[in-house]
Inverse folding.
């Protein structure tokens, strides 16, 4: 759990500002997905909380207020809790799905929950229709989440228990961030 927590916090410092939006995205969610597939509910939520706090508080372009920090943390905590519930619900019982499939569905739940909550607040602030704001976020978030989901599936298959695997995970998430910056033209 500590390795996953540390990697989530580290990767949350690799923020990318989304073009045309005031929000940023970070690959910290990759390790939230790993936690959803391997760890307990409370460990997953704790990792999500740390990832959100680091992303929000690490070298911000403008100092965030308490309300913004609390909202960002709560959004990722809610999304990760739902994601964990889905992943574990699909991995157990009579009709259990393979690990990669349940993690893919869990990643989709994380993406949709997180972006709908953020889009809802942004549409209220910007006085824009929800579907327009959500579509703008999705344009940039979906490719990032897809690539991050592939990495998370790889790390769930190879648990982050040794230092060499943890270093490999950190490097691959850093490369994801660099590739995304290039893709987004930043």
């Amino acid at each position: 759990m500590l390795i996953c927590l540390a990697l989530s916090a580290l990767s949350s410092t690799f923020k990318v500002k989304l073009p045309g939006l005031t929000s940023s995205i970070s690959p910290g969610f990759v390790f939230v997905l790993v936690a959803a597939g391997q760890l307990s509910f409370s460990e997953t939520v704790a990792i999500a909380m740390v990832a959100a706090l680091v992303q929000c508080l690490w070298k911000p372009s403008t100092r965030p207020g308490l309300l913004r920090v609390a909202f960002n943390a709560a959004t990722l905590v809610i999304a990760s809790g739902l994601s964990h519930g889905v992943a574990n619900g699909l991995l157990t019982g009579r009709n259990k799905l393979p690990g990669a499939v349940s993690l893919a569905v869990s990643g989709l739940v994380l993406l949709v929950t997180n972006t709908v909550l953020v889009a809802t607040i942004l549409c209220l602030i910007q006085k824009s229709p929800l579907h327009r704001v959500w579509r703008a976020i999705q344009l940039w978030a979906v490719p990032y989440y897809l690539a991050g989901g592939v990495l998370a599936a790889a790390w769930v298959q190879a648990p982050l228990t040794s230092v060499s695997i943890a270093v490999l995970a950190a490097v691959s998430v850093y490369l994801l961030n660099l590739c995304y910056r290039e893709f987004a033209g930043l």
